[in-house]
Structures are given as structure tokens and as C-alpha cells.
Design a protein that fits this description.
The complex is a heterodimer of chains A (130) and B (118). With 130 residues, chain A is α/β, with parallel strands linked by helices. Chain A is built from 5 helices and 5 strands. In chain A, strands 4-3-2-1-5 form a 5-stranded parallel beta sheet, with helices on both faces.
Chain lengths: 130, 118
């Protein structure tokens, strides 16, 4: 089966990204496909490369990057959610004249159309709420 | 045929989630035939927000509900149980959704090709 994931919860105040990660790992290990992982609302905060959690705690950013790389996943962030929360790639940082960008490697910033497209072409869309 | 059903469940004032969820629904309407269902505290989004908007200096995104027909969105529903729970029947609402009972909602979920929960 082909899945689309719609993840919304913050990495710090919600279990959403963690639940979605477990779901994605289970899906892929069972031979299913994931058309796209879409990060919306506060879930985009997971793609902040400046996050520096204590070493003895789960690093969700690294975990998603690893899964993305292992399975060549499209880890797509909503641009409006990102800009509101200060997640910027190089071109957005330049556009808004910020001193730095902070988008973690392996994630890409795009629009809501990506969520809609993924929802329409996948067999199932699974939302992990905020 | 409802291709995408957007279920909106966040209240309007306590976070940006309700506003962003409505943005997602509008994006959906550009690409497909959508329906919107307000459930739980999400029904509070339908209350005319004038005072709250002034008090909290937030964007009056609910004004956009009135423009839904312009986006060819005609199927806008509210959960009747939630309306009862939050006492919304006598409130001034931005728009009047079609109220659905639990069995109606079950049928709507079955009819929709995909469901997106916010």
C-alpha cells in the first residue's frame, strides 16, 4: 500500500513526530511505500538543524534524517508553517535578509499543494495530530 | 463526489492551528472537490469572532469561511453533538454549516475518498 503522512505535532510538546516515525518504520519494514511525509503546523520544528538535545535523549531530527536517507523518502515541510516558525533554507534566509539558514539536511521546503497531491495519489493518508 | 474531507477540530483562539488548518482546506479546494467538517472544539471557530479578534490582535481568518462558495466549497458540516455540547445553537455564527448526527458523520467518512484531520 502507498501511504502519505501528515504530521502536525511539535517535537517538544507532542508525541506526533515520534508516533509517525514508528508508523513509518513499521510501514516500510512491511514492504509498504510512503509517497511523501508532509510536516505541517509545529511539526516543521523538527527540521531545525540548530536543535541540540542532550545526548542521552532521543534526537528526532536525526531519526527522521536517517529514515529518509535509508528509504529515499520525500520529507516535505510546509513553507508557510516554516516561515512563521523560523525554519529557513538558504533561499528563504536570503529573501528575508536573515543572517543564517537552519534547515536540516534531508528535509525540503515546499507548499501545501504537496500535501494535497500526496493525499490524492496515495491509498491512505494518515494524520498525526498536534 | 468528495475527494478530500477536512476535519477541523482545533479551537480558534489558543493556537495558530485552526488558521493553518483552514489554509490547508483552501489549498485542497484548488486541486479537488472537498468537504469540511467542524467537530469538537473546532466548532468554536464558527462563532462570529469580532470581540476575540480585537482582544487578542489576531487575524480574523474566519472571515474566509464566508468566501468558501467562491472556492466552490459547498459541503460545510458541523457535528450536532458538538453544537449541543458547546451551546452554539443560539450563537451568532460566521456561516451556518449543515449539522450532522453521528450516523451522518459515519456516512460522510465512508463517502469521502480521503480524510485529512487537523
Amino acid at each position: 500500500m502507498n501511504f502519505a503522512l501528515n504530521i502536525q505535532g511539535s517535537p517538544h510538546t507532542s508525541n506526533s513526530l515520534w508516533s509517525a516515525l514508528n508508523f513509518a518504520q513499521a510501514c516500510l519494514s512491511e514492504g509498504h511505500r510512503i509517497h511523501r511525509v508532509f510536516f505541517y503546523h509545529d511539526a516543521v520544528l523538527v527540521a531545525n538543524t540548530l536543535l541540540a538535545p542532550p545526548q542521552d535523549e532521543m534526537n528526532l531530527t536525526t531519526a527522521w534524517q536517517t529514515l529518509g536517507q535509508d528509504y529515499n523518502l520525500d520529507l516535505c515541510l510546509c513553507v508557510a508553517s516554516c516561515l512563521r516558525r523560523g525554519i529557513l533554507n538558504d533561499s528563504e534566509a536570503q529573501r528575508f535578509e536573515k543572517t543564517t539558514s537552519n534547515l536540516a539536511a534531508g528535509f525540503n521546503i515546499s507548499g501545501l499543494g504537496q500535501l494535497i497531491e500526496a493525499s490524492l495519489v496515495s491509498d491512505r493518508v494518515i494524520s498525526f495530530g498536534a | 463526489m468528495t475527494q478530500l474531507l477536512f476535519i477541523l477540530s482545533h479551537p480558534p483562539g489558543s493556537s495558530i492551528y485552526a488558521q493553518e488548518a483552514f489554509d490547508a482546506a483552501l489549498a485542497g479546494s484548488a486541486f479537488s472537490n472537498i468537504a469540511i467538517l467542524f467537530v469538537g472544539a473546532g466548532c468554536l471557530q464558527l462563532i462570529e469572532p469580532k470581540l476575540a479578534v480585537e482582544a487578542h490582535q489576531r487575524k480574523d481568518f474566519q472571515r474566509g469561511f464566508r468566501a468558501l462558495p467562491d472556492y466552490h466549497v459547498h459541503d460545510v458540516y458541523g457535528c450536532e453533538d458538538s453544537f449541543n455540547q458547546f451551546g452554539l445553537h443560539n450563537q451568532v455564527l460566521v456561516i451556518e454549516p449543515t449539522l450532522l448526527t453521528q450516523p451522518d458523520i459515519a456516512a460522510l467518512l465512508k463517502r469521502a475518498q480521503r480524510v485529512l484531520c487537523f
